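User: Teach me something about this protein's shape.
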Amino acid sequence: ISPKKMKKTKDKYERNFTIRTKTGNQIEASSTTPIHIQLFDDQEQSSEDIRLKYHDHDKHNFEPGAIDEFQVTSHQPLSNKLTGIRIKHNADKYQGWYCEWIEVIDEDNQQTYCYSVQRWIDKAENDKKTDVYFNNLSNVPCNSLSNTMISITQESYDTESHTSQRSSIPYQSTYHVETKTGKKGFLSLSPTGTNADVYIQIIDHDGSKSEPMQLKKSIDHKNQFERGQTDEFDTGSIKQLNGIKQLEIWTNEKGLGHGWYADYIIVTDNKTNEEACFLIDAFLNKKNGGVIGNHLILNKETNNISCREKYQEKEDDIDTIQTRQMKAIRPVTDSSSMILYKRTYNVNTKTGHKGSLDTNADVHLRIHDKTGHISEPISLRRSTKHSNPFEKGNLDSFDIGTTESLESIAKIELYHDGTSLDREWNMEYINILDNLTGHTYCFSSDKLIHNSEHIILDVPCEEINKEQMKSKIIDTKDKQKRSFSVRTKTGSHVEAGSTTPIYLRLFDDQFQKSEKIRLKQKDKDGHHFQSGSIDEFHITSDKPFNKLTAIEVSHTADKYQGWYGEWISITDNDTNEIYCFPLQRWLDKGELDGKTDVYLKYIPTTIPCEQ
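Assistant: First, the predicted structure itself:
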C-alpha cells in the first residue's frame, strides 16, 4: 500500500503527528522520566522510538492532571491506518508515570486515535511493567474519558493504622475547604507549615459526624500548608449531613517542624452554600491538641466577623510589629524610633533532661562584652519554636536586643526567678548570633540553675565538645553506631524535583568514610524530592566519626532524571554540631558538566543553610 501524502526523501518517509497525553490527577502520578512512544500500523510496520518532549527543551515534566501536547515526526514508512502504540521508559522504581489516555492525531491524513491507558507505567506498581503495548482504541474522544485516579470515591481513614483506604461509595455531601497557614516569630519568618497529612471531620446540627477526610491536592499550590499560604481543597463525605456545626481536625505529625500553625479553616457546604468559619490561631501539636489521639474540636464562629476579616485584623497587627522589629535590627538614627536597640541578637537555648522548670518562669540573661560593658537584663520570653519554652529537651529560639553599645561577647550571665514553682532548670548550652557582625558565640553549661541563682557562662562550646568527643570516640570502640539528621533543600523550579534515589557518604578528619547511605524515610521504599521542599532524614553509620570534613552526594539515574539541590545540612546528633554544605547545582547526566556525584568540602560558617 502506498501511503497518501507520504514524502520520500533520501529513502526515509516523513510523517507528522500530534500526540496528546493526560497525566493522572494524584501528585504521585507526575514524572520527569523520559517517556517514549512507538506507533504501529495495519501493515505490521512501526515508527522509531520517539521521545515525548518539546522541541526547544531537553526534558519534560508530566504534571499531575496536565494535558500535554507534542509535535512529533516519524521517518519510518507507515500506512494510513494506525493500530496500536507502545509506551516505555527505563527509569527505576517509583520514578514512573500514571497515564490516563494518549491521543494520536495523524496530521497528514486527519485521523484521530484515542487509546485509554489508565494505568501505572512503573517498576513498583501493578504488574511492574515499564514497556506496554496498547491497541484498545476508545469509541469516545479522549476528553470524554473519566479520570480513574479521582473518580467519585472516598478515601476512608483507618483509625488503627492511621492511613487512608479507598472506598467505592459515592459522596453524599461535598465541601469546599479553605485553610490559612499562619506566620510567627521574628519578622514572621519562623517555620509554621507542615508536611504532615491533615484530616478533618464535620459534625452537623444533629450531632452526626462525617468519616475522617484528608485535605490533599491543594487547588492553589503543589506544596500545601506552607508558611503564610492559603490553600483550597475539594472533599466530600459518604454521609448525608445536616449543615455544619463543629469541626474536628488533626495531623499525623509526620514531616518537619513542631506542628502546623493554622490561622483558620473555612468549610463551605456545596449544597446549601453555607460557609462555616473556624478560628484556630495556634499550633496543632501534642500540647495544644490536633494530633492523633488528641483531636482538636472547633465550634463554628457565630459572630458577624468572618474568618478573613479576623485574619486581616491580625495581619495589620503583624505589620505593625514587623515595622518595629525592622527598626530593632538596625542601629537607631533618630529619637522617633519605637525601639532603641543598638545591638540585636538571635538566641538559641537547649534545655536538658535533668530537673525541670515551670514554663511560666521568667528567664533572663545579661551580656558581658570584652571591654567590660554589660547589657541590661533581657527577658527570654517568647520562643519562636514553642508556645511553652524551656521544656525538657526543647531547643528554643528568641530574638532580643539591647540598648547598650556592646562589642564582641566575652561571657553570659543567666538566671531565672522560678515563678510559681521552686524548681531548678537544666540548660545544656546557649548559642547567640550577633545580627550586626554575623558572629556566633556558644557557651556550654549542663548545670542545674536554681531559683534566683545567677551563673556566669564563659566556657565556649568547642572546648566542652572536644572532651565529649574524646569520651564518645572511646565509647565507639564498643558501640560505633553514629546518628545524624540530614536536611536537604530542592531547587524551586519545577524541573528540580526528582524521585531518583539520592545517596550520601560522610568523611571525617580521621580519614574515615561512611558507606553510601540512601536518603529516604525509614518506613518508605522511595522518596520524592519535590521542588522547593525541605526534607529531613535520620541516618546512622557504623563508623566512629569525629568531626566531619566533607560529603559525597550521588545517584545512578540516566539523563534528565536527576536532582537540583540547593543545600544539605547535617546535624551530628551526638555532639549537636551542625554542618552546612551549599550545593546549588544539578546532579544530572544531561545538565551542565553531566556529573551525578559530587564531593563537597566543609567550609566553617556562622550562617545556617536556611539563610
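Now, about its shape. The chain has four domains: 7-149, 154-313, 343-459, 482-601. The radius of gyration is 29 Å. If you'd like, I can walk through any region in more detail.
User: That's plenty for now, thanks!
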